[in-house]
Amino acid sequence: MNTSVLPNINTDLVEMAPHFQFAHSVDCVIFGYDKGVLNVLLIESDHPDYRGQWSLLGDLLRPNEDLDAASYRVLRERTGLTDMFLEQVKTFGEVDRHPAGRVITTAYLSLVNVRDHQLKSIDNALQWRSVNDIDTMAFDHKMILDACLAVLKRKIQEEPIIFNLLEKKFSLRNLQLVFEQILGMSFDRRNFRKKLFTTGLLVDQGEMERNVKHRPGKLYSFNREAYDQIKKKSFVGLQF
Amino acid sequence: MNTSVLPNINTDLVEMAPHFQFAHSVDCVIFGYDKGVLNVLLIESDHPDYRGQWSLLGDLLRPNEDLDAASYRVLRERTGLTDMFLEQVKTFGEVDRHPAGRVITTAYLSLVNVRDHQLKSIDNALQWRSVNDIDTMAFDHKMILDACLAVLKRKIQEEPIIFNLLEKKFSLRNLQLVFEQILGMSFDRRNFRKKLFTTGLLVDQGEMERNVKHRPGKLYSFNREAYDQIKKKSFVGLQF
DNA sequence: ACAAAAGTGTTGCTGGTACACCCATGT
DNA sequence: ACATGGGTGTACCAGCAACACTTTTGT
User: Fold this and answer.
1) Residues forming a β-bridge with B127
2) What does each C-alpha distance from A236 to A65, A233, B185 come to in angstroms?
């Protein structure tokens, strides 16, 4: 009995040939936050079975491309961004998930801030859609989106990735709004501030908001160096 | 410009053919707990490049098989178990990860208890190895094992999956030992008891340990129904 | 003046941690 | 009798939740 994970290289190659018939793709679930709303970047599908429905940004994996590299490429090609948060979430491999054949896809979660880096409008079929407004999507993409949303909710409480959604300098109010938006809860302002300050991850930028029609708030930035230090010694979570 | 995730079915099939050349596999990281040690079920590789090294239990995905179904099949075929905890963890898709060609693999985490269900010894190359004794493995399997261990550490604090490692009836001592073993910490016995009891997830079975050479402890079981109820309303975590 | 949000402290409660003694069983 | 772990309660401390008023800016 052959006990290896794969048949030996020495065994008849014909035996293995039928296995090398899968296609693999990556799909990027790109979240952005704008004016109080959590958005996801979508494109209208022009696949005949799903024409006009919303679809995630993805592409087929190339024969000599690492999986992670492919997701990075998709993000770069579609948005022009090159230095964003990007992390693998889950792989979807149902037999019938794609009409074109056996395509297995790996979903990636990405967080970008739309202000600092303006999107290249290479492709005007691209659109930011509020995650709350999305009911149906092409393929199994709604399921993929939901999986990524669940992971997002978990991860913002485990690691300080939420800052990727904001500009480098942000007000505490905005930070709180993003948390509230994603988690679907609301927090007491004073307690939220205390909690965030005691993490030691925020740096007062000595600047104020501009052009707001109320008392301007201080601007802060995320101190990544401090985070890297603290994390070595202890868990740094923001459990709500 | 073609904006769909995949080329249309109508476009030249020749265009897509080069993409359907990947193989896909699943690898199961099967953890078991026995006499104070966290083990993982491994097999000696007989792939020429890695002969004699330890390898995870895996197999190639079949053309008409769902991804999850494949992991389930591997577990069933190798261990004879059919009703175990099994969950997808991560997909590894480096170009050169497998000598036989472009094989992408999805890792699954599985927890089994060795006592309740005796392993079929179909295959005597199978062996339980202490996770602490494993340094190198075939392919990229050490990396996969490490990823699954990290996920295991996280998940036992988020969901009551740890009970899958124990027999149906277990002593609090054993439960605590499994936690300590996996997390690499030790806890105060009284505080551990209080914490577990206040979850409301343990049922006193009215039975005692047998054949222990000290005062026998009470046996408890995990109350899944209670968990399902509680979980609907609130988060049920066991943060340590 | 009004509207909108910024900024700020205290109190009570809850949950975690630290800690020591007697009990039941096998040898 | 001894060794091994089972079983139990309390006191302290830290972190969380609840809560209201004054300040700054734009209109």
Assistant:
1) B42
2) 34, 9, 18
Nearest to A177 by CA among A37, A20, A11, A32: A37
Contacts of B191 by beta carbon, 8 Å cutoff, 6+ apart = none
| Residue range B6-21: mean pLDDT, rounded | 61
Which of A94, A126, A155 marks a domain boundary?
A: A155
pLDDT of residue A120: 63
Residue B98 lies in a domain: yes
d(CA A225, CA B64): 49
Domain presence at residue B102: yes
Q: What is the pLDDT of residues B205-227, one digit of tens each?
A: 999 999 999 999 999 999 999 99
| Euclidean distance between CA atoms A160 and A99, whole angstroms | 38
The parent domain of residue A194 ranges over 162-233
Q: Indicate if A144 and A167 belong to the same structural domain.
A: no
In angstroms, the Cα distances linking B109 to B27, B45, B112, B215 are: 9, 20, 10, 36
Structure confidence at residue A117 (pLDDT): 62
> The CATH number of the domain where B123 resides is what?
3.90.79.10
Stated pTM of the model: 0.93
Q: Do A45 and B4 touch (CB under 8 A)?
A: yes
pLDDT along chain A (240 residues), means of 10: 44 66 97 94 93 95 97 93 94 97 97 75 79 97 98 97 97 98 96 97 96 96 96 87
- CA nearest to nucleotide D2 C1': residue: B214
User: Among residues 93-112 of chain A, which lie with CB inside 8 Å of chain B?
Assistant: 93-95, 98-104, 106
B30 and B148 fall within a common domain: yes
